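User: Please predict the structure of the protein below. I'd like the answer in structure-token form so I can feed it into my own downstream comparison script.

Assistant: Understood. Taking the following sequence of 317 residues as input:
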Amino acid sequence: MKAVFLDLGSLDCNDLDLSALERQCDSFTCFAETSAAQVSERIAGAELVIVNKVVLDKEVLASSASLKHICIAATGTNNVDLQAAAAQGISVSNCQAYGTDSVAQHVMTMMLALHTNLIAYNNAARNGQWARASQFCLLDYPIQELSGKTLGIVGYGNLGAGVARLAGAFGMEVLIAQRAGGDTVGGRIAIDELLPQVDVLSLHCPLTDLTRNLINAETIALMKPGAFIINAARGGIVNEADLADALRQGRLAGAATDVLIEEPPVNGNPLLAEDIPNLIITPHSAWGSVQARQRIVEQMAETIAGLRQGERIRIVN
């Protein structure tokens, strides 16, 4: 099997063991990144293509007669035309639940940093503010405990459940929102009823037509002024301009996001303005622990081994 990985640099920071993948392929070629103009040439003659975010559309797929399988080194499949692949007899697989612990840990880190004003205190210690204090300690920024607070979760799959488990260990009460446009599930709460009750809102749902701009000026107005929003799902679920305005106006106590609508934000973003208080932004890194990324490698190797034996493991089309 001749295989090519088009954007290894999006997964591997020279800290992963790729030998499990290499053993499954007779020929294994890796590129750190691949532009749209380079895709057709690089996959020519390949039976297996591995991509993370490189787009494989109908035209690209039609140009590769030898292609039999596509491994997506992620859960999302929006960068591959699944219908076109199926029409050509090309199977497509993804990776699943590899980053649950990594993302849940990151969400709790952001939640704790907001509640303890960790960044403000770090800056105060380093910029001389603490040295000028009249007491042994500096308590200029409010510190809150998670225990006894209410966490609302939108999207209760592996990631949402993982965050709920950790939040419970901190003594938080957890409420789960009904799925947008989905059937009513016992024990879950309509989001308009959930928002006024929560001290922290954590988002873990996919970006769909139903969840786009789910959190906006209108829904933020339903929340407590002292509430926090955390988004480790997808950019676009939160209206970024509305969130920026709410933070400036003190409508929320703070927010943290690991995702933006455009990534990387080469054209700027409303949330990157310097005058927004109590906002933490990380560069879509929540999923990226070395353990989670190694699981992706192992899952793809398992999928390819299954293909050789006629088994369909994590096939999505």
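That's the full token string. The mean pLDDT is 96.
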